[in-house]
Structure formats: structure tokens, C-alpha cells
Fold this sequence. Notes:
mainly alpha; 80% helix; elongated
Amino acid sequence: MSAIEDAIAPNVKVMQIIVGSLMMGVLVFMVLSVTVLGDAFQLDQPKAPEQNNVEAQEASEELPIISYLGYAFGLSALGAFSLLGPIVRSNAIKSVPSPLDENLDKTLNAYQTGLIVSAAVCEGGAFFNLVAYMLEQQPGNLAAAFVLLIAMAILFPTPSRVANWIEDVTRLRHEQESFSN
């Protein structure tokens, strides 16, 4: 480990706990929605035996609108996941005075804020898709929630990843300051 990785290790541990907790919440709810809760909340409750086949056929042809909304929300969450975190980070880093490596707490706060925003967007999309799965039992919603869980795992911070980000931002800040002078 480099010196900067040693210095930021406690902060990175906090970030790992936050992202890990968000991921575990989605994972636990996913297991519950597949095993325990799914049958209890289905929208398509069994019809009474006296209903004729035409009504049963019409009920089975209903569009799974909540599932479609879940797919749309999942796609928009993936887009927001890749855009919002970096935007929040870049805006937050502008308020940190130079040199960034001497203001590590504020620099790490900027990274952590963007990380939490990105992970929370993925978590929201995953929960929406899991609720849609519980209601309409469309396997695509389960897959969408799993993809969003993987996106959260991609965000998982490591000391080397955060140190590389700090070095990149420091280098960019130095280049910007040298161009302005």
C-alpha cells in the first residue's frame, strides 16, 4: 500500500460499509421477494371456479404495466448511476481548496458523496423492480434488480481505486491551475 492508501484506509472502510449495507439491503429483499413474499403480493389472484374461460383469458392477457415501469426505472437508474455520481463529485471537488492531497478529508467527502448518490440510485431502481416482481412475477424484473445490484458492486470502493481517483483529480486540478496562470 502506498502512503496515500494508508492515510485514506479508514475513510474507505466507512465507504465500504455504506455501499455494502446498501447492497445487502437489496440482496435480502431479493431473497425475500423470491422465496417468501412473492406469492403473498401477487396481483393476479386466482379466479373463482365459477368464472368462465373468457374472463380467465382476458385476465391473463393484461399488460404487466408495473413491470414495464420497473424496466424503465431500471434503465434510467443505470443512466443516472453513470452520470449523477461523477457530476456530484466534480461539483463537490470544486469547493475543496488546493492542494487536494493536503485537504484529504474534504476530498474524500466529495468522493463519498458521489458514491452514495450513485449507489442510492441503483438501490432505488433495484427495489422498484423487486416490488414489481412481487406483484406481477415477471422474471425480467428480477434480472433488472440483479443488474442494478451488480452496478452497485462495480462501485465498491477500494483504497487503490480511491487513491487513483485522488491522484487523477489532483493532476487535473494542477493542469487547470497551470493553464489559468
